[in-house]
Structures are given as structure tokens and as C-alpha cells.
Amino acid sequence: DLNCHTERIGRFASKKPGQDRKADSYLTYCLNREDLTRVFCRFANDFDWVRWLDSRGLLDSLFNEDGPLDEIERNLAAWFVKTAFESSDQEHLTFLVSRNSLLHPYLVSSIVQYLANNEIEKPGDCLAEWLNLILNNWHKRDTPDQAMLEALKKVEITESPWIITKTIQNFFSLSQTGREATLSLFHRQYDLEPLVTTDCLKRLWSELLEPNLAILYEDILSILTSQLMKAVADMSVLNSTLREHDSICGARKVIEESEGEAGPEWLHIFIDMMRDTILFLIKTDDKSREFYYEWWRRSKAPILWRILLYAISEDPSCSDDYRIGVILDNGWLTNPVLRVEIVKIIRNSLRATSISLKKMVVETIEAEANKVNKGSEHIAGLRLNPVIEEMLSIVEESAVDSPEIRRLIEALEEKNNDPTRQ
Which of 110, 278, 398, 411 ranks highest by number of CB atoms within 10 Å? Predict the structure, then answer.
């Protein structure tokens, strides 16, 4: 029985579809049987069979996101993908795009897996268009992200940088998980996560992005900056307009190293990528980094302020006066969220700055101390706010070579430790 069907199907399907109604009726019958559908797929290589199947509604399930496919539909999906990449033209891709419908997850996964596992004899721009189709039809947790990485590696980045840009944009995009947030003190209803797994993000960085930073740095920094600003907005303490106490900062102890940090792993991957990309620009003395410095400074996101302070502390083109000036001009000296980065700059740069800047630092600490103590009842032995006290101690260590600064510090310490002070 099967041999007879195989011979008959081969006679019809190895040619273009014709006008023979009996043949059409017979093939329609065959495509309702799983075993005969597989036989049909062995012989039907011409794109006209795609049109024939489509005209009879036999491909409709591939353009419906919902519901599982049966074995016949899965066989047709695999057949479609195989014939698409064995063909020398772009008719299959044009057909999918022209339907203007979201593709079934199984079809998308089949395309990704085929691209990842086979040598593709298609021009680079055509391959990029297939990858674009996948990104436009991505199904979170269904589309295989590791296979997508393998497919992306077959694109020549210098020829089609736009598809890598879109990949960064899509993969880094944060969305709600549906779970309760785990970081915020007064958390919003949902937590956030990127489109793909953290393992995929790590491989994307090490295998595609990091080796091509000279081409991709702008996309990486711009997209990650925007996504971190989104994260701060969505996961911050709700009653903090400047978000100075946002939970994003609380999850990251130091910018230099993420190992052993708490909080969502994607957040540390994002910060590590930004850090390494800006260090690349510093190392290559790319002046475009100044644009990002200013963007981060103007943002309302303390995690970006921290990355800025880290960057200028590592940037040899930034003078000691400039580093201290950034802290003072933005009112960050006693901001507890920025403590780690500010302490590093004060310890490394204050000693080499001018007397006038040192005075401004002490005067800023005094103003902050007065602000904290103003209006509060005096308690015997009241000391400075711990953050302010720590900063004063560090300033004292860093400015010991200046008698004038020492006198200012001693006067401030005496004032704030005097039990008779009103």
C-alpha cells in the first residue's frame, strides 16, 4: 500500500501542481495522513506547492500563534523550512512576510534550528532578513535563544550591522515577569527580566559583542542605558522623585566586580557590559565616551551616576580637579547611594587638587552637616550623620598636607562634637 502511494505521490509532487482535479483530490487525501504527508514532503520541492497548500488552507496553522500542531502540521512546517533554504530565491521568505501574521512558535523554532545547524548558501543580506523575521516573531521561552546565537554568528557584522543592533535591542529589552518584584522596598506589582536567558546574554557578549566593540559600542551603551533607566523607573522606591535610594543600586556593591552579588543576574550582566564597553572607549581614547558621561550625569538613575563616577575615575583624560568637580557640581558628595565610587575618587584625587577645591569639599560637608542638624534638638555628644562623618574622615586623610584644610576640618569636628552647641 505505502509503496503504491509513494510511486503515485512521486509522479504528481515531483512536478509543479497542475490542473488535474483527480490529482488534487488524491493529494488532499494524502495530506490527511501522517505517513503520506511525509512522502509528499520528500518529492514536493517547487515553491508552487507552497501556494497550492496555502490555497487549500493547509498552512493556516503555521500562521496561528495558539495551540499545538499535530504531526501532519509539524511535517509541513519542517518541509517548508527545508525547501526554503534549499531554494536559490527568496519566495518562501516573501510568502511569510506577505501573510502579515505572527508565525507559530514551532515554525519559528524550526527556522532557527535549521539556520543554526546547516550551512546556508544565501547572501548575507538575505540571511539577515530571515533573522529579522525570527526577531519579529520571537516567542519567549519557546524560541531557542542558544540556536539563535549560532545563526547570528553566520552573519558578517560589517555587512549587516543592523541585524545585530536589532538583536541587542530585542534581547536586552526588559519586560514584566508576572512575579512580585524582589528588589524594591515598596515594590511595584511585577519584577523585570530581559527577553532571553542570562546564559544567552553571556554568550552574546563574549562571542558576538565584545569581539566587535569597535563597531557595536554605540548600540550597546545606548540600549543598555535606556534599559537601566527603565529598570530604575519600574523598580525604584515610589516616593523618591530622584530615586536616590533605588533598589537597583542596592543590588550592586561595586561596579568593578559582579561576582557573588545578590539580585537578578541580568542586572549584573548589563552593568558588566556597560563597564567593559566604556573601558574599551577609554582605552582607545574614543571621544564619543563624553556623550555618555553627560547622558548618565543628566539621568535620574543613580546606577548610571555610579557607572559615570567609576568611568571618570578610570579615565586618564579626566583630571583630578574634574573628578572632584563632577561630585561637587551635582551635589553627590554625601549621597549614600554613591558612597563606594565617591570614596574611591576622594582617596585617589583629592590630594592632587587645588586648595580652593579642597575648601569647597569641606564647606560642602559642613553645609550638609548643618542641614542634617538644623531644626533638631541637641543631644549631648551628638555626632555627624555616619555618611558625612565618614566622608569627613576620608577628606582629612587625603588633605593632611594642607594646614588650612586641616584647620577647617578641626573646626567642623569641634563644632559637631561640642555638647553645648545650640
Answer: 278
